[in-house]
Amino acid sequence: MKNISAFLLAVLALAASCGPLEAQLFKKKGQGAAPLVEPKLAPGQFEWYPERAPAGPILVVVSIDDQVAYVYRNSVQIARSTVSTGAPGHETPNGVFTILEKNRVHESNIYKGAQMPNMQRLTWSGIAMHAGQLPGYPASHGCIRLPYGFSDKLFGITEKGGTVVITRKYAKPSTSQKPASILLSSKVDPGSRPAPALVGKTIWDPARSPSGPVNFLISGKDLSIYVYRNGVLIGQSPIGLSDPARPIPAGVFLMLEGTEPGAPAVVPGRPARPWATLSLEQEMSPAAVEDFRNRLHIPVDFARRLYELAHPGTILVTTAGSSNAGTSSGTDFTIMRPQGR
User: Fold this and answer.
1) How many domains does the chain have?
2) Which pairing describes strands 76-82 and 95-98: parallel, antiparallel, or unpaired?
3) Tens place of pLDDT for every residue, the chain, 341 residues?
4) CB of 78 within 8 A of CB of 156?
5) Residue 256 lies in a domain
6) What stretches of 160-278 show up as alpha helix (H) in DSSP?
7) Are 195 and 295 within one domain?
8) 38: domain range?
9) What is the value of pTM for the model shown?
């Protein structure tokens, strides 16, 4: 068990069975193309193809086992690079992180004099992405070292609040079955909704954090949905879940740019939005997502607030675990917990 020590981290175990290393473009609906297997990169080598997707939210996926980082923009892989993660005794934590701080020129607060060019902070306890030496194996004190040229380019396209997933094995992202429709599900009998006194009260206080990136977390154990803005909890609500003993799928959903013409509207009069998902335990098939949606109920008024807050780059994390202030994960994968420095 590990205690959680970050400002905005997320979710549960990333099982070792997350699939083979197959870096590829996000699979678009109906394509069904064979995965693009890419050649191995030498230490310090990287690829950068921003023209593949000129705009959209950024998702960075770091594979510790493969010592490779992948960059996706609006669900298209635009880059990959070799990395060096934490050496034994200083392992890089697994989890879903948001970028908390960015500095082109930075010196380590922990290791006096250690320069960290193009630093992008992931935890207040000292984990960051930055330029550094890449010997071809894990060698850092926990940070993710990047080739200087790659770190410079990545720094230029990311924003504070962007999403970084660190995992043991690489799991390729794919399109999802519209998590927005999950958020507005009302197919479950209202009688299955939990009593708020048992799982926490309903909260809606957006003034606690008036601006910044918004992220959502659905916890199967808490039977609650949480709303964070700029890392501050601004809302929560009980949810209903039929067959609550059956775990919900663990995944990270990322809202993309644009709309999905012809898709069912999740809010009357508002268009459906496209999302991509990164499965965190096993392949999250469309059938599994649809099953989860049918089991779930969120109060309609609260769900409409979520729809209005969501924007390209918003993430929704689903986990069978808990997210209360005293929680720690059952594995080495961190769970979201609101806290400051």
Assistant:
1) 2
2) unpaired
3) 233 223 233 332 222 223 222 222 233 333 333 445 788 999 999 999 999 999 999 999 999 999 999 999 988 899 999 999 999 999 998 888 888 889 998 777 666 667 889 999 988 888 899 999 999 999 999 999 999 999 999 999 999 888 898 988 766 666 655 566 666 665 544 444 444 454 567 899 999 989 888 889 898 888 889 998 877 889 999 888 888 888 888 888 888 888 877 766 667 777 878 888 787 766 677 777 778 878 888 887 888 898 889 989 898 888 887 765 433 333 344 444 333 33
4) no
5) yes
6) 179-183, 196-199
7) yes
8) 20-167
9) 0.76
Report d(CA 320, CA 52) in Å as an integer.
35
Q: 151: exposed, middle or buried (C-beta count within 10 Å: 0-12, 13-18, 19+)?
A: buried
Nearest to 238 by CA among 291, 178, 302, 289: 302
For residue 287 the two structure tokens come to 């059938």
Alpha-carbon distance of 262 to 15, in angstroms, equals 35
DSSP state of 287: H
Q: Which of these three, 132, 167, 202, is where a domain ends?
A: 167
